[in-house]
Amino acid sequence: MKRAVGVILALSLCLQLVGCKTIPKREEGGKESSSPQMESVQLERLSYKVPADWRKVKGDQGYYHYPQKENEAGFLSVLYSEQDVSAATDTEMLYDVYDAVLEGMEKGADSFHLIGKERVKLAGVEALKVNYTERFDPHGVYTLEAYIFVDPEKKGMYFAIFTASDALKEEMGAQIAPITSSFRFGGKGISWGDASTSGGATESSSSAAAGDNSTGSSSQGAAGGQGGSSHAGASSSGQSSSVQSSAAQSDPSQSGGTPASGATAEQKKALSRAKSYLGSSAFSRQGLIKQLEYEKFSHEDAVYGADHCGADWNAQALKKAKSYLNTAAFSQPGLTHQLQYEGFTDEQAAYGVSNCGADWNAQALKKAKSYLNTAAFSQSGLTHQLKYEGFTDEQTAYGVNNCGANWNEQAVKKAKSYLKIFSYSRQELIDQLKYEGFTAEQAAYGADGAGL
């Protein structure tokens, strides 16, 4: 059931992009100003704020907010599903539910590419934050930042998903932290009503609901996991100036793993928590500081914990690289960008990638097979996708030539996926398949197999 929710959610996102060419009338008006007005929206028990000049459309599952006139630029979707997950009595069980939903989203998507995921707090509850890219035909690849979470009683599931084209990344990214920091759960019995307009900026929050200081740029950072994009370090560069200044003033190499004399009680707690995190996962210095701040430690105490925990950040980068390779396939530049996105320095990322022991040909093959498990590709389309991921020509050729794909059957699969959304004639379908890189013979075979 949880996986089905994810598949339905992925389809609803696709329909929002490919449908609704006529722009619906706004339900509320917004006035332009140098300091944008925010309007409050209520969805079941969740309230949140969005810029008042974003066009708002009410759907079956929630609300869609469009920053620009054209739907295709991207949007924020805040959705609700009545799913009772109260049986998840502890944190690990709850995150198992979130992972199952994410798996469903991946299976229901076209060319889903996971950039990274992390556990955060949102509106006072445990949430899963996911950065990924997804292809929405015929519009191309979009960058997404999703938050999956439940209400405090675990009687309903919520999704907040920021979907941006390249043209919208900067504008959308700048609004992620203000919007997520405004998320609040009210008492029982709150109805799904219309939004009310409210002036002023959203309240700030030191919890994970604020999306941390890098959240506003993580959409750009997500793109950095692809094909050597120059945006790869956007997440680390998006850290607050106080983090950067502390990095300049503190020498992590002096970390001893024990509290310094005169450490405060909160600093000792932060240090203990930092060691606990490092015992179960790998972190960059910046990532560890962010995680401690999620736990509501002050920035100063979080920096203290990170700088006195005794971590070898090169070793952490290597550990993180290996953990990624255990769960997904990466090209060499893709893995480098992912580590940089996690907050590792260029040197630390290079160390992790150089020492992880990856066979990049095998990674290209693994990536090719993972794509074919979730979507349909022509031979040239799969070649293009692997190159986009940062694989060399030789690695790409190895992956494509050894993936075992039947390109005729791929054409049928692609044709059927199109007909679920579009009403194509036979010739229109053949033309679309040829546009996707299938040969004329493969395209005709695909149309035949789809029943046209």
From TrEMBL:
Record-annotated Putative host cell surface-exposed lipoprotein Ltp-like HTH region domain positions: 266-308, 312-355, 359-402, 406-447
Keyword Lipoprotein: yes
Name the record gives this protein: Ltp family lipoprotein
A Pfam family matched in the record: Lipoprotein_Ltp
Comp. bias intervals (Low complexity): 195-221, 231-257
Keyword NAD on entry: no
Keywords: Lipoprotein
Span of the signal peptide: none
Superkingdom assignment: Bacteria
Record InterPro entries: Ltp-like_HTH, WH-like_DNA-bd_sf
Region ranges (Disordered): 195-268
Gene3D superfamilies: Mog1/PsbP, alpha/beta/alpha sandwich (3.40.1000.10), Winged helix-like DNA-binding domain superfamily/Winged helix DNA-binding domain (1.10.10.10)
